[in-house]
Amino acid sequence: MIRLPAIAAVLALCVTAVTAVVSSAADPWLAIEGGDGPGKGKHVVLISGDEEYRSEEALTQLGKILATHHGFKCTVLYAIDPVTGEISPNKQDNIPGLEALRTADLMVIATRFRNLPDAQMKEIDDYLRAGKPVVGMRTATHAFNIPNDRAYAHYGNGYGGDKKEWADGFGRFVLGEKWISHHGHHGGESTLGIIAPDAQNHPILRGIKDGDIWGPTDVYGVRLPLPADSQPLVLGQVLAGMKVDSAPVTGAKNNPMMPICWVKTYSMPGSDGVPAGPSGRVFTTTMGSSTDMLSAGTRRMLLNACYWAMGLEKVLPEKSIVDVVGPFEPLAFGFNGAKKGVKPADLQ
Question: CB–CB of 272/317 below 8 Å?
């Protein structure tokens, strides 16, 4: 005999599963309506679009965690082939739905070398001019690659044009660093997170200790020191293998260790180059492949960062729920390895 409370619990889960996703099958994005939780009433827009690290998988899962466990309304955007309507990470010039940023309380971005049309870039530019918070993941340090004759060329990685305050583009100006290098051996040396000196009490590290953060992606190189307004939170210990218990490599790679996440602020410049707009919080991590999301510590870091960026650190629990939502079997990173024939509606 099945007890009535058990039936009620199952029905409640079914109702939640049916009503949580509000996208229509034709939408080229995934909209997930949050339920009750600390994030209720807040809107997070997650922008994927990279050829290598499966950001379409990582941000879909992060959006589901934010909505299901914490109540945030989440809109996940993708690089879309306009002919087929399918997610196409190699399509560098189309991320439909960026208008969602007009009502966003947080932008999470994990794009790589995108060359978006001016109308789509304007949505990102308008969001930043409002001084709203940003969480940048992995290839967001080189999120854009826009030709010099275009209106938003200054967003491009390594920008060296007349807008001196935008030197090195969106990555350096907003996030704190552009693309520099693979510091760890790509595909052979994974990353273990070690708390940076004097950073343990930062809200983003709540419930996290040395070794909790791990991922098979390698440590990125950054220029040390980071910009003066950046505070490193976690350092990346380069491991000699692709398992969490692999030994650290010996030699210069871990002396000093590179920061793998930090916080800072940004303020968009006026016509004279002087900061003129409101200031926004920024969290940047050079981790963020979909396979990194298999680590509970990495998921906790990203969740905590979203709370902090929106100024919600006071309602962040010590050990908030970061359980994976639904089936999650991320593909290994690598070029041209994304799953084919997937539309946003298939990810519900």
Answer: no
Beta strands 231-238 and 191-195 are: antiparallel
As a whole number of angstroms, the distance between CA 85 and CA 57 comes to 17
What is the rounded distance in angstroms from the CA atom of residue 143 to the CA atom of residue 138? 9
Q: Count the neighbouring beta carbons within 10 Å of the beta carbon of residue 94.
A: 18
Other residues' Cβ atoms within 10 Å of the Cβ of residue 140: 27
Provide DSSP, 25-62.
TT-SEEEE---SSTTTT-EEEEEEE-SSS-HHHHHHHH
Neighbours of 184 (CB within 10 A): 24
Q: What is the DSSP letter of 251?
A: S
pLDDT digits (tens, 9 = 90+) for 153-166: 999 999 999 999 99
- Tokens read off for 234: 């976690």
Write the pLDDT tens digit of every residue in 312-333. Answer: 999 988 888 999 999 999 999 9
| Distance between CA atoms of residues 103 and 44, nearest Å | 9
CB neighbourhood size of 148 (10 A): 10
pLDDT digits (tens, 9 = 90+) for 90-101: 999 999 999 999
Average pLDDT over residues 15-36: 71
The residue type of 296 is A
Nearest to 347 by CA among 66, 93, 64: 64
Q: Are 233 and 197 in contact (CB under 8 A)?
A: no
Q: Could you give the angle at which helices 55-70 and 4-20 cross, rounded to 10 degrees?
A: 130
Tell me the pLDDT tens digit for each residue of 257-285: 999 999 999 999 987 777 777 899 999 99
C-alpha–C-alpha distance, residues 286 and 303, integer Å: 15
DSSP 118-164: HHHHHHHHHHHHTT--EEEEGGGGG-B---TTSTTGGGSTT--SS-G
> Widest CA span of the chain, in angstroms?
75
